[in-house]
Design the sequence.
């Protein structure tokens, strides 16, 4: 695992954007695995800026998102569909038909998960998967206890994730309790993984995930077994790591 030390959130965002930009420049028709949450907001703003300056071209890029809540309509600002369009897709020249997000409105969520996995395969797999880290060590919506062998599947969110994500909703009751997420196996199949983490609130889980035992209790700990992982983290997030 490679660790890139960043001073703060802005520095983390810029350094992670350098890696994504390099991927797009080296392979213009690459498949990017994308994430939501507050961690990648600055990174996406950096990519938009570089696109506007003419330094990046997304016309051949394909994307697959990690996860989506079940039951939120596309015009709901808390849906990951809305998030991605607002913060990235509509601001760059990626073709809408080349972007993929799990269908959170399907009648048959299990079948939609199987189809999503087939989409990833049909694109030839993920060249670079971007991840954030949940407070409890989740990646995507793979909560503690999830089997490492899982492909894209439906999940019930844990109380701690519902609590953590409630900051984006008006009331706790508005937070969906179910989601569709790429599984750990789908994530681990990516050729390259970049995980971004910031803030002292994540210091403890960063230490456990990257320097503790590999265990399903901390889903992100499996990343220690991936051959090409880059952790881009700020000083606060790395403050409990002995590096
Ligand atoms: C959410 C998302 C994850 C995200 C994580 C961290 O629940 N499903 O994909 O990486 O939590 O979010 P944040 O970056 O806001 O801390």
Sequence:
């Amino acid at each position: 695992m490679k660790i890139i030390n960043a001073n703060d959130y802005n520095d983390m965002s810029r350094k992670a954007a350098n890696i994504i930009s390099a991927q797009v420049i080296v392979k213009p028709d690459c498949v990017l695995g994308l994430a939501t949450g507050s961690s990648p907001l600055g990174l996406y703003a950096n990519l938009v800026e570089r696109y506007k300056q003419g330094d990046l071209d997304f016309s051949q890029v394909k994307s697959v998102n990690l996860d989506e809540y079940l039951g939120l309509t596309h015009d709901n600002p808390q849906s990951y569909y809305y998030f991605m369009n607002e913060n990235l897709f509509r601001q760059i020249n990626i073709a809408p038909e080349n972007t993929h997000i799990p269908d959170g409105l399907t009648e048959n969520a299990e079948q939609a998960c199987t189809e999503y996995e087939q989409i990833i395969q049909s694109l030839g797999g993920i060249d670079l998967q971007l991840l954030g880290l949940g407070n409890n060590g989740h990646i995507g919506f793979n909560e503690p206890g999830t089997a490492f062998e899982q492909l894209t599947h439906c999940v019930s969110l844990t109380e701690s994730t519902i609590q953590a994500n409630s900051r984006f909703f008006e009331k706790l009751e508005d937070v969906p309790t179910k989601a569709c997420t790429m599984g750990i196996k789908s994530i681990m199949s990516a050729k390259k993984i970049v995980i971004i983490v910031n803030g002292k609130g994540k210091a403890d889980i960063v230490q456990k995930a990257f320097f503790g035992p590999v265990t399903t209790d901390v889903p992100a700990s499996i990343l220690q077994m991936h051959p090409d992982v880059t952790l881009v983290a700020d000083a606060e997030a790395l403050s409990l790591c002995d590096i």
